[in-house]
Design a protein that fits this description.
heterodimer, A: about 290 residues, alpha+beta, Alpha-Beta Plaits, 2 domains, four-stranded antiparallel β-sheet, about 10% strand, B: about 220 residues, alpha/beta, Rossmann fold, six-stranded mixed β-sheet, 7 helices, globular
Chain lengths: ~290, ~220
């Protein structure tokens, strides 16, 4: 094994440009893979957030009493579809508004607690329960407006699906492309090492001894590419976190969980080894006749 | 040691070896001579099991070459050192690395490799060239490197296919003296050549092949 690793290192050292080219192709493939996985995981988490968040918001008319609100809340708690309810008074609404706009004094000056309506936020078990709950609320005479963010959920579901499909197809294509590049580079190396292989055979090298460094080489290109891709994707994510946090608002996706990134690295390394090994195996089978 | 019994080899319709029978004892130095295309290289390639005979039986020691399992071929080849006319050295390796390759594929440790390669390079008198690449070597030094690579694993047999073909007169004699010395340790040597002077001066066993057939086999023979 140590000899095979030594031969692999020697192969790479003596053809550095091919090694760089192969690693770059793997880098692009795995950068795309990791980007799509991060996007898919992010959109999935955002979707979960919206699905678990109070999804129906009912705004109360001016003059609604605590008894009216309590009656509605009690009625909703009887519903098995409702998981949680939260009353937001005018003062609480003002507090939330102030927190959100603390950097804009003009907006803060214009708004008082009287302007903002009290509201009730209702969570449901399933996004499909949103509409019936909204209908119940709309029938309440003290309710002035009902907001159903099911459109947000529907849009997010659709975006998540698109990311999965487009990402899957792109990554699938890039995986095939990367495998073929490995086949090509390892095949080329086998051809330029014909004399060496012939000598190795004649001095008694086993087929495994001759093949193994080529297999390791393909795997190493995959591993190098994927580690570089991971460093790039993590750096970009870290760099843009402050900007994205502002954009995402209440959706707490960032800063990204380091465990998620480690799992992403682990998964990518496994995939890279598989792609490298398949490409090398194919090249060895095709070009290395021992 | 080496026994050919009615060995024939066909390449398509062409008959490269025709019913060859030959018995070579351990420690012999045998010249295989004959014109180009006579079948000398085919005979040597069968002995390294690069090719298989079409018919007949070849025994090396108690091993029937045609019956060796593919998985045992590498083990068999470690008993046979090969030297080529064009040296077949690797451009990107130093003299030391060329010779070490034989032992690396055998799974020897770094210490064993260092010791054996140093010993062998000193033996063939190119230890001072150990860090040079083939392009920096003379023809004689390149062939000595190839011989060192062939003998470093202590094979029972050394096959030399026209080892002096690309060398000048003086260098060729240096290589022959080296092969002669290796033979004196008990290593069997089969050397394909058409260098009459060498064959006739050394007065060793000479097997003459023409059109795939052995036409003459004589001890202390001559090549005319």
């Amino acid at each position: 094994m140590s000899k095979a690793i030594e031969f692999t290192k020697r192969n790479i050292r003596r053809t550095p440009f091919q090694a760089i080219a192969a690693s770059m192709v793997m880098l692009l493939t795995f950068l795309a893979l990791q980007t799509f996985i991060i996007l898919a995981a992010g959109s999935q988490a955002a979707l979960r957030y919206f699905e678990s968040k109070p999804q129906v918001i009912a705004f109360f008319k001016e003059g609604t009493t605590d008894q009216d609100v309590t009656a509605i809340e009690s009625a909703l708690k009887q519903e098995t579809r409702v998981t949680n309810t939260k009353f937001v008074s005018k003062d609480m609404a003002l507090q939330i508004y102030r927190e959100k706009n603390k950097n804009d004094p003009t907006l803060l000056e214009l708004v008082t607690a009287n302007i903002l309506p009290a509201s009730l936020e209702i969570s449901t078990k399933d996004p499909e329960d949103l509409a019936p709950i909204a209908d119940i609320l709309k029938r309440e005479p003290v309710v002035s407006e009902v907001i159903v963010p099911e459109d947000v959920v529907a849009t997010l579901t659709s975006i998540t699906r698109i990311i999965r499909y487009v990402g899957g197809a792109t990554v699938g294509f890039l995986m095939i492309f990367a495998t073929l590049v490995i086949v090509m580079i390892i095949g080329f190396k086998i051809r330029i090492k014909r004399t060496e292989i012939e000598i190795m055979r004649l001095v008694g090298a086993s087929p495994g001894f001759i093949r193994t460094p080529f297999i390791f080489e393909g795997m190493l290109y995959g591993v190098t590419g994927t580690i570089l891709a991971w460093i790039i994707s993590y750096t970009l994510l870290w760099y843009f976190t402050p900007f994205l946090q502002g954009y995402l608002g209440e959706v707490k996706l960032l800063p990204v969980n380091p465990l998620f990134m480690l799992a992403l690295l682990g998964g990518s390394l496994i995939a890279a080894c598989v792609v490298g090994a398949i490409g090398s195996f194919a090249a060895v089978r095709r070009y290395l006749k021992i | 040691m080496i026994l050919f019994e009615n060995v024939s080899k066909k390449f398509g319709p062409a008959l490269a070896l025709d019913n060859v029978s030959l018995d070579i004892k351990q420690g012999e130095f045998v010249f295989i001579v004959g014109p180009s295309g006579a079948g000398k290289s085919t005979l040597l390639k069968i002995l390294t099991r690069e090719i298989l005979p079409t018919s007949g039986k070849i025994m090396v020691g108690n091993i029937d070459i045609a019956k060796i399992k593919d998985s045992n071929v590498p083990q068999f080849r470690r008993k046979v050192g090969v030297v080529f006319q064009d040296f077949k050295l690797l451009d990107d390796r130093t003299v030391f690395e060329q010779v070490a390759l034989t032992l690396e594929v055998q799974g020897k440790s770094d210490e064993e490799i260092q010791k054996a390669v140093e010993h062998t390079l000193k033996l063939v008198e190119i230890w001072d060239k150990r860090n040079l690449f083939p392009k920096q070597l003379s023809g004689g030094e390149a062939q000595r490197t190839a011989i060192a690579r062939a003998i470093v694993g202590k094979p029972d047999i050394v096959l030399a296919d026209e080892p002096t073909g690309d060398l000048d007169h003086k260098t060729a004699w240096g290589v022959i003296q080296l092969l002669n010395e290796i033979n004196s340790w008990g290593t069997t040597i089969l050397m394909a050549t058409h260098n009459q002077e060498i064959v006739n001066t050394l007065k060793r066993r000479v097997v003459v092949i023409k059109q795939g057939k052995i036409v003459k086999d004589s001890k202390e023979g001559r090549y005319e």
